[in-house]
């Protein structure tokens, strides 16, 4: 990676908070990290694989999903920003196996940091080894919060309520930028694409929202009163 690439990574990846480019270079070298490349459609890890790395997206788009017993796939998360981390929760799980699978939605470059680097003291006495462990604790806390929010979405009684709660989570200045395509959104909500599209069109015809591709403008704040 070039210094320019590293600067972008440091800016966007919380794992490297409070670290200089020199310190991050040292950590990458000391940890034995590698960059792996995946073509669109390639599997990054499968369910029941044993986690070996902290995965940090450098380029591309990654989807995390799981398979049900009847063969359906449900999307758990989507990562498409430089510095996004995924799969790290399972590194510290007692189960120690992935419960989901990850695949490349677009060609990907992924920085893979071996998990052993966080489990043992640094033999080279890197000054920021403790810092990276502290940063990881903060990231895991945020992930726990995200999962709790998703549980709240899926526990809603109706599809409309699920959509409204999801819109609320992504709303900034009355605009929700939904990071899903319609098919992916339906999978995330455990519904079907026609049902989701129909409900969104109904909400728009009711004067609650205005839809422009993946952006949803909130026209009536009373929409959030329907969250249950």
Overall body shape: elongated
Tell me about the largest β-sheet.
6 strands, antiparallel
Helical amount: 25-40%
Number of distinct helices: 7
Taken as a percent bin, the fraction of beta residues is 25-35%
The overall average pLDDT, rounded, is: 87
- Domain count: the total is 2
The total strand number stands at 10
CATH class membership of the largest domain = Mainly Beta
CATH topology of the largest domain: Jelly Rolls
Return the structural class: alpha+beta
Q: Which spans have pLDDT < 50 for at least 5 consecutive residues?
A: none
Short description:
The chain has 228 residues and is of the alpha+beta class.
Can you walk through the features of this model?
This protein is of the alpha+beta class. It folds into two domains: about 5-155, Jelly Rolls (Sandwich), CATH 2.60.120; about 155-225, Winged helix-like DNA-binding domain superfamily/Winged helix DNA-binding domain (Arc Repressor Mutant, subunit A), CATH 1.10.10.10. The chain has helices at about 5-10, 20-30, 115-120, 130-155, 160-170, 180-190, 195-205; strands at about 35-40, 45, 55-65, 75-80, 85, 100-115, 170, 175, 210, 215-220. The strands form two sheets. Strands 1, 2, 3, 4, 5 and 6 form a six-stranded antiparallel beta sheet that branches. Strands 7-8-10-9 form a four-stranded antiparallel beta sheet. Helix 4 (about 130-155) packs antiparallel against helix 5 (about 160-170) and helix 6 crosses helix 7. The mean pLDDT is about 85.
List keywords for this structure.
four-stranded antiparallel β-sheet; six-stranded antiparallel β-sheet; 10 strands; 7 helices; alpha+beta; Jelly Rolls
